[in-house]
């Protein structure tokens, strides 16, 4: 149960707690969030694309998230200026083009809540906020914010359904179980994984 363990599943290195392998300070990951990759878990950071140190954006991922192989995060550095007649980044290529505008569209940080499941090869676009408990279907392209406990899929991703009714969603966001002491989580993991609302309300 140690969140500082790199490979939490005995006998395999295809699953890693991400915070222990991330090197880029612009990527911030909470405890117990894992990435699964049968080739190399270090591919995760390679799939955070266009995250440049001259851009202010960050990728923030909460606790207990589950991220499948090939999930990609497109960051603001991928954007080109769009107000001119051309989107070509002239200034980046030549001193002779130094007077050109190189201010891209900036959409802010990309933020993933707690207990979010991101499916295989899903793509998250810049500045998107994904709420707690959401599920992103495989191969989805997420271009807009996703509400807590919503299931989305497709290209562009659209709401498939909510996981629970609004009262239950509000309750789960209120108790914030992911911030409980690990001893309390250990003691009640059977309830957290059961979906028994009455039992969790008793805690």
List the helices and strands and how they pair.
Blueprint: E1 15-17, E2 27-29, E3 34-36, H1 43-46, E4 48-49, E5 59-61, E6 66-67, E7 72-74, E8 110-112, E9 117-118, E10 123-124, E11 129-130, E12 135-136, E13 141-142, E14 150-153, E15 158-162, H2 166-175, H3 182-192, H4 197-201
Parallel strand pairs: 2-5, 3-6, 4-7, 5-8, 6-9, 7-10, 8-11, 9-12, 10-13, 12-14
Antiparallel strand pairs: 1-3, 14-15
In N-to-C order, the SSE pattern is EEEHEEEEEEEEEEEEHHH
Give the uncertain stretches in residue-range form. Answer: none
Percent range for β-strand residues? 15-25%
Give me the CATH architecture, please: 3 Solenoid
Total beta strand runs: 15
The CATH class designation is: Mainly Beta
Lateral strand order in the biggest sheet: 1-3-6-9-12-14-15
Mean pLDDT: 95
Principal-axes geometry comes out as globular
Per CATH, the superfamily is: Hexapeptide repeat proteins
Task: Assign the structural class, choosing from mainly alpha, mainly beta, alpha/beta, alpha+beta, or little secondary structure.
Answer: alpha/beta
Ends distance: 21 Å
* Largest sheet report: 7 strands, mixed
Radius of gyration: 19 Å
Q: Give the count of helical stretches.
A: 4
Descriptive terms for the model:
single chain; alpha/beta; seven-stranded mixed beta sheet; four-stranded parallel beta sheet; 15 strands
Note down, in words, how this protein is organized.
By secondary structure, this protein is α/β, with parallel strands linked by helices. The protein has one domain: Hexapeptide repeat proteins (UDP N-Acetylglucosamine Acyltransferase, domain 1), CATH 2.160.10.10. It is 15% helix and 20% strand. It contains four helices and 15 strands. The strands form three sheets. Strands 1-3-6-9-12-14-15 form a seven-stranded mixed sheet, with no helix packed on it. The chain has a four-stranded parallel sheet with strand order 2-5-8-11, with no helix packed on it. A hairpin with a 4-residue loop joins strand 14 and strand 15. The longest helix has 11 residues. The two termini are 21 Å apart. The model has no long low-confidence stretch (mean pLDDT 95).
């Amino acid at each position: 149960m140690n969140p500082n363990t790199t490979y939490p599943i005995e006998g395999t290195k295809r699953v890693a707690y991400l915070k222990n392998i991330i090197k880029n300070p612009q990527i911030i990951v909470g405890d117990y969030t894992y990435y699964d990759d049968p080739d190399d878990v270090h591919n995760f950071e390679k799939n955070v694309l266009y995250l440049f140190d001259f851009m202010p954006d960050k990728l923030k991922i909460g606790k207990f998230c589950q991220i499948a192989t090939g999930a990609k995060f497109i960051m603001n550095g991928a954007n080109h200026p769009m107000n001119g007649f051309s989107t070509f980044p002239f200034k980046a290529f030549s001193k002779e083009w130094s007077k050109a505008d190189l201010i891209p569209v900036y959409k802010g940080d990309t933020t993933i809540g707690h207990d979010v499941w991101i499916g295989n090869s899903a793509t998250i676009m810049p500045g998107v906020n994904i709420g707690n408990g959401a599920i992103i279907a495989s191969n989805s392209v997420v271009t807009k914010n996703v509400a807590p406990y919503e299931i989305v899929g497709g290209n562009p991703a659209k709401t498939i359904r909510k996981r629970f009714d609004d009262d239950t969603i509000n309750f789960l966001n209120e108790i914030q179980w992911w911030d409980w002491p690990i001893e309390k989580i250990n003691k009640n993991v059977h309830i957290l994984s059961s979906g028994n609302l009455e039992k969790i309300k008793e805690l």
